[in-house]
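Posted in: Structural Biology > Protein-Ligand Complexes

Title: Requesting predicted complex, manganese (II) ion in pocket

I'd be grateful if someone could produce the 3D structure tokens for the following input. Sequence and ligand are given below.
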Amino acid sequence: MMRQYELVDRVKRYNPNADEEMLDRAYVYAMKAHGSQKRASGDPFFAHPLEVAAILTDMRLDDATIIAAVLHDTVEDTAATIDEIRHLFGDEIARLVDGLTKLKKLDFVSKKATQGENFRKLLLAVAADVRVLLVKLADRLHNMRTLDHMRSDKRLRIAEETVEIYAPLAGRMGMQEIREELEELAFRHIKPDAHALITAKLAGFVDINQGLIGEIEAELGQRFAERGITATVSGRAKRPYSVWRKMERKSISFEQLSDIFGFRVIVPNVEDCYRVLGVIHTTWAMVPGRYKDYISTPKQNDYRSIHTTVVGPGHQRVELQIRTEGMDRVAEFGVAAHAIYKDGRTISAKDMTESSAYQWLRRTVDTLAESASPEEFLEHTKLELFHDQVFCFSPKGLLIALPRGATPIDFAYAVHTDVGNSAVGSKINGRNAPLLTELQNGDEVEIVRSNGQVPPAAWESLVVTGKARAAIRRATRAAVRRQYAGLGRQILDRAFDRAGRPLNDEKLKAALPRLARASVEDVLASVGRGEMFSGDVVRAVYPDLETEKRPMPEGGAGPGWFDLKQGENLKFKLPKADDGNAIPIAGMGSDLAVRFPPNGGAVPGDRIVGIMSAGEGVTIYPIQSPALAAFDNEPERWLDVRWDLEDKRKRRFPARIALQSINEPGTLAQITTVIAEHDGNIDSVKMDRPNSDFTDMTVDLTVWDLKHLNAIISELRQKPVVSAVERIIA
Ligand code: MN
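-- Reply #1 --
Done. Output follows.
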């Protein structure tokens, strides 16, 4: 295992100004945190973060990245907390470790084909800082190097994930070396037979052509030297994975492969690249279609190089890559080569947002989202792509992409409509959270459900996904319809009862054509909404029934006019009266089909009456309400109702009072104090000053019931500053 001083030495080799003290502190902190934890190999766990850090020192990354690498598994796997890390190592490192902790959740996500794209996006969205991705890749690389110790099923899953997600990610980030190593390691586990075969054949091929690499290197070097070009030439056989890919792609056998050797020519400057190319093309026959100039047209991951293939010495096809040292470094380390060190100075995270490396990463990130061919990606520079989305997990590891601003309600509907409709609460990362919390990337969201619940209609305007909105609308519509139908049935029950005829669904069905409705439920809902009168339904079901309507008496009618039988007078029901005939009214909010007039409605204790309004169901008025006069000529709209407040949930009801008070300082305060002290809730106060001595006020408040309202009124009357109080009824 790497010693503390070794880690510091590795960093100091390329960064003499490294924060030695902080590196030491991180080393000790992580060592203590991981304690006696062991890896699958039996090695101490702490060796792993150190190896990850070592990989990153090869890329010459900054202190913060190296320290984050040392700490990367502490929060997820030990008692360490992000707060503690922030306290000990500062915000920047805490942010990096936090990003890594979130990414780590990805390791437990079950591999689902449809999640591949989301997966890559999540990776990038969570890793807002390029350095988080770099640590993640180094982490994966070390895990792949030590994969042999894992269980075989786990091995396969991790290897497949590496090929599908991490190797392409490294490639798109321009880190060819890491990409190739990841692919190579994964290939060995995914296709052990093919890997063994190709490795053996390659070894045989190299054996037969012993010395050829050296010969070609020497010949090339000599030709360049003749022209006065300083160049380093190095050749190698291709790696098993790229050989296998080529065999698969072209459906050819190993023996049919031509260019097994690849050579790299490194020169001091761009001009030399083209001079080298000239030498090569004039010396050997070039293979058509293989020449590519990525110097004049760099790849989108900033890769620059000239590629060509020639029939070289010994009639061996030779693939050549020609580039400068700088280009070579980018080809090997990609973003890491750009990112971090310039003139021995660390670029801070803030500088990163400005730097070309950062911009370059953003471009790369965009391509990943498209996951199509690299050629496409300049056309798809949707920079805001990931700012628009959040990625969250279900407790089972399902990954869900949502628009930014999404809430647990959106999440619930994204999982399943039933989950959304039955949602009553949520837990985010294990903690209870309101359903309206804005979700963050990487959040794990658990929905608390309850059956028999209807999503509140207000949710419709609070959610951000169309799916949730449509589902809520459907559910609330269905619920409202059910309530109207329920109310309609109660109204009809009573109407048929009074007519002395039985009501059943069969008879109602038979009368549907006469009622011009498609179903029994339609009829019930229409009656509940007040679009169809109960008397019409009775007559439609029993056309023979004598339906004599009484003429309206002088001075208007009472609710008794509602019934069909002559001579019967309905009585108003006192609160909680045990009367099976009156329709129970539980109050606002409980029953969408029932409403109260806004300006001074009924409160429990008032004798009440319901008025049916087309499309709006029932409005409840106190029977002394002057508004009722307007319905005198429409007896069919009157409904006999009673309070039903057995419900345990206590509700407040709106009431309005008018006051006249003496105009002196503190009057308003005295009045509001009386109301507040008596547990009245003031919604609004309107003041009017008819003359300088008195003020008229209208107070809208909510109360529990009539007794409560009366108590407040009588208390107000006792105040010397109050000259008059009365209740206003709409
Ligand atoms: Mn790790």
